[in-house]
Design goal:
Blueprint (H helix, E strand, L loop, with lengths): L2 H8 L2 H14 L9 H25 L3 H25 L5 H12 L3 H14 L7 H9 L1 H16 L10 H10 L1 H28 L3 H19 L3 H30 L3 H12 L5 H9 L5 H31 L2
Length: 326
């Protein structure tokens, strides 16, 4: 493998600022980012990428390739939490296993955006409709995770006294702020097309990398603070948080190859399959499965899988794609 891919990825300003954030915590700097700012920046990133995706989608049209890609995205979002649940059940109870499985069935938008920036640096094209795949993979894992809790908590005699209110579960899965803004921006981008893009380009394009860099600085701070939680997870979950993304990336790569995606799209699809949610799913699990331990599903996704993917995973997945696509 060409090590320059990993070096090139690590030397990207957003990734270096992620390390800077981690370093600040490790050396006990007083660097702090006021809570409203990361929230604002995360909303901006979702808006910008959703809007761009909608514009690209209207340009590419709803082709057979687009439909197959979106169906594959939904399939993986449903399949990953099911098979990982049974692996996790070997060591964990039903609640923790279902919450972590749902986390790894969903996606990380920031990892996706970092992979997009990586492709842009290398001059590899990708289609905007991959944003639609991102949006479709956000919610199904939450539903699957809750179904698994309902099925297996009762079988093991651990069903809690409270009942799930499915209307609230579905509402949180499909109308949470991340999904709502992403899908809404995608639709507006689709409706306004090139005209809308030119109107908003200074905001959606010119500021994008600066905001992403500052956002990853904050993610570095948060990830470093979560490292101590890994002491509670043990070697099993740490290994899981590294190996399962690789397995899911390989599955995504094979699906992408079977469908015939171009290299850029294949990398983004593999990254979506390999990433884990640390915003939408934890928020939903905290609300609907309070028996699950947040330090397990947040710390594995944020302190292990996220840095692994943005530092090593993305260039390694591209290396595999380059081998397959020759």
């Amino acid at each position: 493998m060409d090590a320059s891919l990993i070096v090139s990825n690590i030397l990207n300003p957003p990734v270096l600022f992620f390390f800077l954030g981690m370093t600040a915590v490790l050396v006990k700097s007083d660097l702090e980012i006021p809570p409203p700012i990361p929230k604002l920046f995360s909303l901006y990133l979702l808006f910008a990428i959703g809007f761009k995706g909608g514009v690209e989608l209207i340009k590419s049209g709803i082709t057979q390739e687009v439909i197959l890609t979106l169906l594959a995205a939904i399939l993986m979002a449903c399949f990953v939490p099911v098979y990982t649940f049974f692996i996790l059940k070997l060591k964990l109870d039903t609640y923790d296993a279902a919450a972590i499985a749902a986390t790894y069935g969903s996606i990380s938008a920031v990892t996706f955006i970092t992979a997009s920036a990586f492709l842009s640096e290398l001059g590899i094209d990708y289609d905007g409709y991959m944003v639609a795949a991102l949006a479709l993979m956000e919610s199904p894992a939450i539903i699957v995770g809750l179904i698994l809790v309902n099925l297996f908590a009762s079988e093991s005699g651990k069903q809690s006294d409270r009942d799930f209110v499915w209307s609230e579960v579905l509402r949180d899965a499909f109308l949470n702020s991340s999904v709502f803004l992403l899908v809404g921006s995608l639709i507006i981008g689709f409706l306004t097309g090139e005209h809308g893009w030119h109107v908003l380009e200074p905001f959606t394009q010119g500021m994008f990398y600066g905001v992403l860099t500052f956002f990853l600085l904050d993610m570095g701070l948060v990830a470093a603070r979560r490292i101590k939680d890994l002491q509670k997870t043990g070697i099993f979950l740490i290994s899981f948080a590294i190996l399962i993304p690789i397995v899911n990336a390989v599955l995504g790569l094979l699906i992408a190859w079977f469908i015939g995606m171009p290299r850029g799209d294949a990398l983004l699809f593999s990254v979506l399959c390999a990433s884990a949610s640390y915003i939408a799913v934890p928020a939903a699990m905290r609300l609907t499965v309070p028996e699950a331990n947040p330090s397990l599903y947040v710390s594995t996704a944020l302190a292990v899988t996220f840095p692994f993917n943005i530092i090593v995973g993305i260039p390694v997945y591209l290396y595999g794609i380059n081998l397959f696509w020759r």
